[in-house]
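Q: What would this chain look like folded?
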Amino acid sequence: MLKRSLLVLAASAVALQAGSLDRFTRVDRSAAAQMAASTTSPSAAAVEHSNVTMYVWADKYVYQPGEPLTLKMTVQTNDVYPYTIVVFRQNNQTGVKTYIGPNGETGTPVDIYGRTPEQGYQPVRVSDRTREVVIGDGGWLSASPWTTPSELGMHTLVVQLRDYTGGRVLKAAYFKIGVVDSFVDVGGVISSDTTWVNTKAYRIQSLTRVENATLTIQPGTFVIGMPRTDDPTALIITNSAMINAQGTRSRPIIMTSSQAFGNRGREDWGGLVMLGKAKINVAGGTSFIEGLDNRPYLQYGGDDDTHNCGTLAYVRVEYAGSVFTTNNEINSFTWGGCGSKTVAHHLQAIYGKDDTFEWFGGNSDLKYAVGAYNADDYLDWQLGWRGRVQYLVGIQHPGTGLGNRGIEADNSEFGVTDTPYSNPKIWNATFVGPGVAAQDENTGDGSPGLYLRRGTRGSLNNVVITNFGYPAVFLPDAATIGELAAGNLTLNGILMWNNNRLSLDKPNTVEAQVGQKTAGTEVLTYASDPAHNFAAADPQLRRPLVYSDPDLRPTIGSPALQLRWNAPPDDGFFDQWANFCGAFDGDNDWTEEWTSFLRDADIAPPPAQ
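A: My prediction, written as structure tokens:
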């Protein structure tokens, strides 16, 4: 397991070129070795528990060659562990790294003092810093503005904290930028096969739809939603079209707001909608997608459960959810009637107005999904969805009333016995609530972690639920409780802690964290049965409530890593080895590099005094 630590600031009398690094205290390498060898010091314990908080950002996402760029960093620490700091830019098309030191750029690895491995890296101690300039005017590594490279495509700016020898990365912060030769305005209908390339940025000017064609989006492409006062700007893949948006870990596809950093907000633009021809449980077999009006091209549903809406991989949707009419917003990601040939993995939605991932019928699947700081539910299904999900994160904005439920599940709002039933299989999810009362949508049921209603069926397994103002699990109606009793709705492996926070007199027990709206004790009886593996215990997540740099992996010794949890089925989709509770096995952080948790309040320039 990698050890990661906290930084400490100590004022320094050391003055280097241009005085840019005089804020650091150099540490003698022999002394650094002794400090690092300690296993009982507070710093060693901090390293073991990975408590360092660090994030970096630039002025914006998209640049043209030669534009000035400033990279800033915030780090929070209380540790004296000596670090080697390395800063570089990676061209994600070629993989070439360009290291940035006090003497400019070089292809040779150097630390921030310009020292190479052969010379011996210089370990330093550094303290809490907020909005610290790393490169750019007045930064550590330059006394004048730093400009973007001439190579087009996606690049990553990286700040690494390595061990005192410089040989092992303990913490890394990433920021993606696009270097483009032009901006392309798009809107209306795309009716022939089209490719969006990462050497350009695409500005969506209207409600844009793809019909009778395939839209391909290259890895590392930026898609920018522009503001509108009438129709929202959104990207619609109609049921006669497909999308092929396959990013990578180093080159995600980023769909984001056009607003300046520090001024971005939910509903800056619409989102991504995919429509297919798989079965839904609506009379007549078809419907029009929620969030928009009943225009013919917005129809979805049919009889083809293998229908292919396309492929999404390593795609981020940010600041989406435009309001079309009152209480009628677009989700960040929407699948309507998409079939089994549809592929989706490594997706993130952050700061959306409506739901994060929502299915209306169909049977498409999703693997490796992250929702952060959205204003509604994180996983929402209805109208007969029968897909599968594994590795899901939903983290609400701590301490605010924004956000709703971890899962909101319906068979159908039109008929609780309509077929085909909603019947998905969910494995390995982690939901972190805001710790306060969140939105209720006028149901009177509050914002529980899992809200299962309207006769839904399904299977939910190995789920961590923590910090919700309302119960971890709540069933509001007799129809859904009936499906639970009949074995058509199953829950197995539910780890709960600090939920029902609005009832502070209630203990952290299974009994205090599950509930139902109807008279009776069916849900409590179900949760109390050892065969269903409910537990009330602290999952010991590392930094679940830290703005801009959370870490939802469990620490060593967490009950989420015990052997009591079940193995997923061997059906070709699920990873059978994931017999842990929650979205992480405790070590591998599959969200690293391609996701972003940046909060605008944390990266905006401070208000003028």
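DSSP finds six helices and 45 strands in the chain.
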